[in-house]
Amino acid sequence: MQKEKQVLVIFPHPDDEAFGVSGTISQYIKEGTPVTYACLTLGEMGRNLGNPPFATRESLPLIRKEELKKAAEVMGITDLRMLGYRDKTLEFENDEELSNMVTELIEELAPSLIITFYPGFSVHPDHEATARAVVRAVRRLPKSARPKLHCLAFSNDCKQHLGEPDVTHDIWDVKDQKIQTMKAHSSQTAWMLPQIEKGIAAQDPEALKWVTFEHFWTYQWENDKVE
User: Fold this and answer.
1) Reduced to 3 states, what is the DSSP secondary structure of residue 56?
2) What phi and psi, each to the nearest 5 degrees, are found at residue 185?
3) Taking the C-alpha atoms of 202, 1, 221 and 152 in order, what is their torsion angle to the nearest 10 degrees?
4) pLDDT digits (tens, 9 = 90+) for 104-134
5) How does DSSP assign 156-177, residue by residue?
6) Are 39 and 11 in contact (CB under 8 A)?
7) Burial class (CB in 10 A: 0-12, 13-18, 19+), 14
8) Is residue 15 part of a domain?
9) How many domains does the chain have?
10) Which residues have CB under 8 Å from 13's CB, separation 6+?
11) Average pLDDT, the chain
């Protein structure tokens, strides 16, 4: 893992960071690198209300806000930004305003690395809108001044178009923090975590992949298609 001056993580929902990035975040913080996490919404339209229900549509954002704060605490994040957009509406926000929001964060923090989703390969409309806003904001900068842009991609065809991930972080030393971060988002993850933990204990490769490595794609500016 390369040394960074400042890392900025930008995702739309509480728990977006948990499965793919929380080990990396924890490792950076463990090494003394400041990390800011900007979360655009409180995930108030999340599908999981429990069976029997543990939340209403009105109470869910309050629950997820507390879960996000707990997850940040587990990772060691002290600079958590909750930006107040509404879940499942980011694709309808003004593109320029979203990009300006990211630009303001970049100007304030001067990150050497930004982590977000890869536009075109992150499935959810909110993921895509967030990723496009980040790319637009970074693209405005002179090439020599652009922070590195590491992206998560998980559409079925992502490797076909992007190739294999070119950035891999060994997160084994912070695996317990990653598990606890996933547990912090219990309203959305409780149904699957016992199986993952059981698999880890049994040394099942499919379960171990969650706590061994995290993979990213460096944004391919030469193939930039974001409008």
Assistant:
1) coil
2) -90, 50
3) 30
4) 999 999 999 999 999 999 999 999 999 999 9
5) TTHHHHH-S-SEEEE-GGGHHH
6) yes
7) buried
8) yes
9) 1
10) 39, 40, 41, 43, 46, 87, 126
11) 94
In a domain, 31, yes or no: yes
**What is the SS3 assignment for 96?**
helix
Encode burial over 89-127: b for 16+ CB neighbours within 10 A, e otherwise: ebeebeeeebbebbbebbeebebebbbbbbbbbbebebb
Check: CB of residue 77 under 8 Å from CB of residue 29: yes
Residue 154 lies in a domain: yes
Distance CA 144, CA 134 (A): 17
37-72 pLDDT, tens per residue? 999 999 887 666 555 566 666 788 899 999 999 999
Reported pTM: 0.95
For 214, the enclosing helix (H) or strand (E) is strand 213-218
CATH number of the domain that residue 205 is part of: 3.40.50.10320
Residue 1 lies in a domain: no
Q: H or E segment at 115?
A: strand 113-117
> What is the extent of the structural domain holding 157?
7-222
User: Residue 116 is inside which H or E element, if any?
Assistant: strand 113-117
CA gap 75, 210 in Å, rounded: 16
